[in-house]
């Protein structure tokens, strides 16, 4: 079975945003995954997170999945 990577909560210090850090982190992780033979890299964001989506849209299109969360307590 080929490994896949889930990127949880990309976060760049507010003082460093807009300078390419977030993009560099994704590129570095993708390069690591290619080197290690991972099948894919995926992550979630809120539909209305405009800053994040502008960055992510440079890499690939959103895949259309919708998350459902059932609160249990
Ligand atoms: C979302 C977040 C991680 C982005 O990090 P960042 O370091 O500011 O992002 P970057 O500087 O790499 O990207 C900013 C710009 O460079 C562009 N860019 C980045 N990588 C690129 C690439 N490979 N090719 C072309 N353009 C690229 C982005 O599209 C964006 O351009 P624009 O704003 O001029 O349209 C950051 O804003 C953050 O930490 N936000 C709060 C936490 C959050 O919401 N995280 C996301 C949770 S899913």
From TrEMBL:
The N-acetyltransferase domain sits at: 1-73
On whether Transferase is a keyword of this UniProt record, the answer is: yes
What Pfam families does its record include?
A: Acetyltransf_1
The record's EC number reads 2.3.1.-
- Identify the domain of life: Bacteria
Q: What class of enzyme is it?
A: transferase
Q: Which UniProt keywords apply?
A: Acyltransferase, Plasmid, Transferase
Q: Name one GO molecular function term.
A: acyltransferase activity, transferring groups other than amino-acyl groups
What protein name applies here? Histone acetyltransferase (HAT)
Which organism does this sequence originate in? Answer: Azospirillum baldaniorum
């Amino acid at each position: 079975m080929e490994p896949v990577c889930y990127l949880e909560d990309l976060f760049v210090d507010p003082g460093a945003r807009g300078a390419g850090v977030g993009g560099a982190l994704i590129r570095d992780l993708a390069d690591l995954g290619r080197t290690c033979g991972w099948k894919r890299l995926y992550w979630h964001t809120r539909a209305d997170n405009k800053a994040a989506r502008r960055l992510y849209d440079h890499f690939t299109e959103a895949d259309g999945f919708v998350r459902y969360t059932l609160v249990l307590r």
